[in-house]
Structures are given as structure tokens and as C-alpha cells.
Amino acid sequence: MACLKAEMQSEKDRRAHVLRMTGLVAGLAMAVGMLAAAVVLGVNGQPWLAAALSGPSVIVLVKIFVLGHVGADDVKQLMKGSNSQMPAPPQPAPEPTPGSPPFV
Fold first, then answer.
1. What confidence tier does 37 reach under pLDDT thresholds 50, 70, 90?
2. For residue 55, which of 72, 80, 87 has the smallest C-alpha distance?
3. What angle, rounded to 10 degrees, do the helices at 56-67 and 2-43 form?
4. Is the pLDDT of residue 90 over 80?
5. Angstrom distance (rounded) from CA 19 to CA 14
6. What's the helix, strand, coil split of the chain in %, to 5?
7. Which candidate, 69, 61, 68, 74, places its Cα nearest to that of 20?
8. CB within 8 A of 85, min separation 6: which ones?
9. Looking at residues 71-76, what average pLDDT do you find?
10. How far apart are CA 49 and CA 87, in angstroms?
11. Kind and range of the H or E element at 81?
12. In the chain, fewer beta carbons within 10 Å around the N or the C end?
């Protein structure tokens, strides 16, 4: 009976280790991928999208994968970071006044 318990505990520890290592590898892959995409987008003239990929969102998402749990503060920080990096909406073009030449 003791041998069976020790074997079950060993299997449980092995599974926990595999899960932990999978989270670490996924977090590393996500961080490298997001930062590489941010560099490519920044070079190609998309600074707002590059900022969204390299800002607080990458830190929080990697933290979630590496630590394996989500806190309420993490979600708030992720939403705050994504909202603060959004550009202001474009202003509509002014309406032409009657009698003026049309915009080209």
C-alpha cells in the first residue's frame, strides 16, 4: 500500500512538473513572438499596434502563463494598458460651406 501511494505521489509530481515547464515554455514563446511582432510592425510604420504588443499586455500575459494564475489586478492592468495605448479617433472632415468649391 505504501508503495502504491509513493508511486501515485511520484506521478502527481511528474505531472505538476510537466505542467509548470509547459507554462514556462509557452510564456517564453509568447514574449518572444509578441516582441518580434512589435519590432516588425514598428519598422513597417505601425507604431500604435507595435506599442500594444510591447506594452503592459506582454508583461501581464507572460506573468499569467509563467505563474499559472490570474489575479484581478492582472486583468485590470491588462485592460488599462490596452485602453491607454489606443489612438484618439480621427476627427471628421469639416462640412463644406454652401457656395464654396468642393474638396478634392
1. very high
2. 80
3. 170
4. no
5. 9
6. 70, 0, 30
7. 68
8. 48, 51, 52, 55
9. 72
10. 10
11. helix 72-84
12. C
Locate 68 and state its grid cell: 499559472
Q: What is the 3-state secondary structure (H, E, C) of 11-29?
A: HHHHHHHHHHHHHHHHHHH
Neighbour-count burial for 73-104, b at 16+ CB within 10 Å, e otherwise: ebeebbeebeeebeeeeeeeeeeeeeeeeeee
Residue type at 42 in one-letter notation? G
**Taking CA 66 as the corner, what is the angle to CA 63 and CA 72, rounded to the nearest 5 degrees?**
40
Q: Is the pTM of this model over 0.70?
A: no
80, 52 contact by CB (below 8 A) = no
Cα–Cα distance measured from residue 39 to residue 3, given in angstroms and rounded to the nearest whole number: 54
99 torsion bin: left (phi>0), alpha (psi -120 to 50), beta (else): left
